[in-house]
Design brief:
Strands 2-1-3 form a three-stranded antiparallel beta sheet, with no helix packed on it. The protein has one domain. Helix content is 44%, strand content 9%. It is globular. A hairpin with a 5-residue loop joins strand 1 and strand 2. By secondary structure, the chain is mainly alpha-helical.
Length: 64
């Protein structure tokens, strides 16, 4: 995730302040609950973005 200069948030591309999150549902839920992405990006992360991340996560192949 990247916070662009205009404070918009982009997933997987762009230059600016960035944050990484592991690709597990547990990590994503913890990040949402504790508002970790907003703090890391220093801007508000909308709830619909978390829904988008959950959809992307569910589309990934299961780990072996």
């Amino acid at each position: 995730m990247v916070r662009l200069n205009n404070r918009e948030i982009s997933i997987n591309h762009g230059m600016g302040r960035s944050a990484y999150i592991c690709q597990t549902e547990k990590c994503l839920l913890a990040a949402e609950k504790k508002d970790r992405l907003s703090r890391a990006l220093k801007t508000a992360v909308p709830k619909d973005l978390y829904q988008t991340l959950k959809k992307m996560l569910s589309a990934l192949p299961p780990e072996i």
